[in-house]
Amino acid sequence: MQFCDDCGSMMKAADDEMVCSACGNREPRDEERAAAFVSTEEQADDDVIETEEGADFEGKPTAKDVHCDECGHDRAWYTIKQTASADEPPTRFFKCKDCGNRWREYN
Description:
By secondary structure, the chain is mainly β.
């Protein structure tokens, strides 16, 4: 597997070059290493949530079960990530919808 030097994304083989599917960077294909590379279908991005600074939506809105320590607001966006081993519960990362304060919650 080869990763792009420019952006770090996985590259795929295209004829005599390796092409980054994210930024389009092209590098010559090293024939000695080519046998070790396996091309895959393009990664689906239908489950990716992209946001910009100042966007009105970030992740999934929560119910009124959170409390921001900075402003007291009771709504926040959240994402869930597995930060420990697989047998441990995931960590929820919050961002206050009112003031933008960020915090995490361990289950």
